[in-house]
Amino acid sequence: MTSPELAIIGGGQLARMMTPPAIALGIKTRLLAEGDDVSAAQVIPDYVVGSHLVLADLKAAIGEAPVVTFDHEHVPSEHLEALSAAGHACRPGPHALLFAQDKLAMRRRLTELQVPCPRWAQIQSMQDVRDFGFPLVLKTARGGYDGKGVWVIREEAEAVDIIENATVELLAEELVDFSRELSAQVARSASGEVVAYPVVESRQENGVCAEVIAPAPNLDSVRGAEAAAIARSVAERLDVVGMLAVELFETGDGRILVNELAMRPHNTGHWSIDGAVTSQFENHVRAVLDLPLGSTAPVYAWSVMVNILGGTEPDLVARRRVALAAEPDVHIHLYGKEVKPGRKVGHVTASGTDLESVLDRARRSAALVKGEEN
Q1: Which strand (E) or helix (H) includes residue 222?
Q2: What does the pLDDT look like over 320-350, one tens digit per residue?
């Protein structure tokens, strides 16, 4: 049996969506999955069930694969070091992933590199909160995502329980008065080739990405170039191999500020599966295997991605027929996940020349899949 070229750690939808381009390129993949029924294990037959926190499970899943990549950023750095020492190329490596795992480390390093960030400080006591000033955003340094581990604090009483019960390090950031959120994505190969995707606008609901518009409408060319340059600089100076998403705030007073980093394919790049010459998933696979990178050019004037967030309809497969009948040109991507309220269980992508029409079609299709529109 041919040894896999690529091992993927984590069985979520990102690993699942790496699979079609890997198959097309003739790349054999292996997977560490959290269970037999997780999203990626449904489409990658060569998998091992285990935990990314257990080194023995990681080694069992990776086997002889020379290159390892990730569906998430939560593998302990000491395990990544051990895998690297055993001859597996971890991409991105532990030296880079630290800055996606630890927000304090990320803020310190970006500040050293003079990358524009919100004002921030480490928080260890209520006095630190008072000294920082209200309002502020309080964050856990590790473990937060999709709005979890993030609190908007407007007065002292709102912070007391968080500070007193914290089990991880905390940081405060200024509550940025932003006009919208942007995302700048680049792919960087092991040999240093870099390609950039168009800067997109992302729209959030309850801390979770709801919609993405590619490219970002009415983005000033200077700000767009600044956002793309920030992403490229971060990828190069942190030695990121694979996809990097830099989530940004665009402020009314002309600033572009880095909010978060993700060193993997990212929700704000899902539009590229149907809307770009080379998807973020294919370029991630190419980058970590050090293959030449593909064109990131959009193939339509506008592409809109709308997340399908779980609601009350449990059978998305049955609803798929209704949505496709109503909007046959919209692409539906289901992740094979159990429906839970607010959970990302799929997405839709619509493209075309008129943005309002594209938005309407994408939103309608997502609503039909969720059973929210007849």
Answers
A1: helix 221-237
A2: 999 999 999 999 999 999 999 999 999 999 9
Find out whether 350 and 332 touch, Cβ atoms under 8 Å.
Answer: no
Tell me: domain 178-370, CATH 3.30.470.20, correct? Answer: yes
Residue type (1 letter), 28: K
pLDDT band at 146 (very low <50, low <70, confident <90, very high): low
333: CB partners within 8 A, 6+ apart: 17, 270, 273, 346, 347, 348, 349
Contact between 2 and 27 (Cβ < 8 Å): no
Question: Which of 229, 202, 205 shows the shortest CA–CA distance to 215?
Answer: 202
C-beta neighbour count of 145 within 10 angstroms: 14
Asked if the 6-90 domain carries CATH number 3.40.50.150, the reply is no
Cis peptide before 265 (omega within 30 of 0): no
| pTM summary value | 0.95
For domain 119-174, the CATH superfamily is ATP-grasp fold, A domain (3.30.1490.20)
